[in-house]
Amino acid sequence: MTFARRVVVLGSTGSIGTQTLDVIDRLRAIGIEFDIVGLSAGHDSVTFRSQIDRIQPRFIAVATEDDAAKLQADYPLLEAVWGSEGLLRLARLDDVDLMVNAVVGSVGLEPTLAALELDKSVALANKESLAIGGELIQDVLQKGSGRLLSIDSEHHALYRCLGDRPIGEVARLILTASGGPFLRTSETDLSQVTPEQALKHPTWSMGKRITIDCATMVNKAFEVIGAQRLFGIDFEHIDVVIHPDSWVHSLIEFVDGSMLAELGPRDMRIAIQGILCHPQRISTDLARLPIERGLRIDFEPFLQSKYPAFGTVLRAAKLGGSALAAINAADEILISRFLNRAISFPNIAAGLRRILDRWSQAIQPDEPKVNLKTLVTADAWSRDEARQLVF
Ligand SMILES: NC(=O)c1ccc[n+]([C@@H]2O[C@H](COP(=O)([O-])OP(=O)(O)OC[C@H]3O[C@@H](n4cnc5c(N)ncnc54)[C@H](OP(=O)(O)O)[C@@H]3O)[C@@H](O)[C@H]2O)c1
Asked: Is 42 domain-assigned?
C-alpha cells in the first residue's frame, strides 16, 4: 500500500512535532511516503538544525526575523520565513495537501484557518486553536472541503469508537483524564506544590504548557470543547472520568447502553499515525499493550471542585465571543508566572476566574460578532491583565 502526501509540520521540534517525524520515518520504512516540504519551530536550535539537515525541506519558519536570517545564511538553498506571516506562508504552500499543526498556543489559529480555507487537510494537535477559534473553523469547514482531524489521544479514541455510526446514536462521549500529578494531593497542600512537581506528569511526556494544563485540568476542558466542536454534540452529552493509568483513551456510551472504549499504550504516535493515515489502520513496529500480563483498569469520579479551572474554561466556552481567547492568553501568562515561582499553583485557577469575570464586564458588552480581530484584541488585553494580577 503506497500513498504519497506532501506535508508541512508546524512545531516540528516539540513533543508532538518530533513524534510526528518519527511516525513519518516508520511509515517510510514500510513504503508509505510523505514528502516533508516545510518545517517550523519557535527558534533556531540544535534540534531544528538537525531536522533540517536530515529532511532538507524547501521551506522553514521560525518566530523571529533574526533567527530566520541566521538559518537563511547557513541554508541558502531553502527559503526561511518568520513570524505569524511565516507560518501562514507554510500553511498556504500550493503543493502541500496536509498540514500538521503542532505549535503550542494561540499562534496556531491563523495557520489552521488558512490551510482549511485552501481546502487542505489539517492534522491538529494545537487544541488551543480549536477552542479559541472554533466558530471560525466551523465556518470555513462548512464553506469548503478542507478536512480537520484532531491529533489528541482522546479525540482519536472517540473517532475510532464512533466509527460510521451517526452522532444521534451517542448518549455520551466520555473523556478519560489521568488526574495529573496532584490527583492524590489534598486541596490545602496544593498551595505548596512546586513547578518541578507540576511538570512531572504521571503517565505522559509532553511540552511544559500542556503538562501544567493537565495538572489544572484546563487541558481536559479544552478537550471537552474540542469534542463538542468536532462531533457536533452538546456539552450535556460529554463527561469526564478519572482513569489514572491512561490505558483507556476515551469511551462512548451509545443510546442502547452499550459502551465502546479505545485502549492502547500511552504513546501519542499511535494517534498521530492513525490521523496521518486516516481512516486506514497500518501495521508499524510501535509497542503494543501486553494485556495478557495483567492490566488493571480503574475509573474514578471526576471531582470538579478540586479542579476549579476546568469549570472556568467551560464557562468561557458557553459565554462565547472572545472569552476563550482571553482565557487561553491568561493561562499562558499565569503558567509562566507559576513556573517562575511568582505565583502559587492554585493562583492559576484563581487568576483565570478573575480574568473571565473582568472579560464579562470590560469586553463582552460591546464586543462585535467574533472574528480574528476580536480574538487578537482579547488575547492582547488578557495578557496585560494577567501580568498585572496581584494575589
Ligand atoms: N504533547 C502531547 O502529548 C500532546 C497531546 C495532545 C495535544 N497536544 C497539543 O499539541 C500542541 C503542541 O504540544 P507539545 O507538547 O508538542 O508542545 P511543545 O513540546 O512545547 O512544542 C511546541 C512547538 O511549538 C513551537 N513554538 C513555540 N512557540 C512558537 C511560536 N511563537 N511560533 C512558532 N512555533 C512555536 C516550539 O518550537 P521550539 O522548540 O523552538 O520552542 C515547538 O516546536 C499543544 O497545543 C498541545 O496542547 C500535545
From this structure: yes
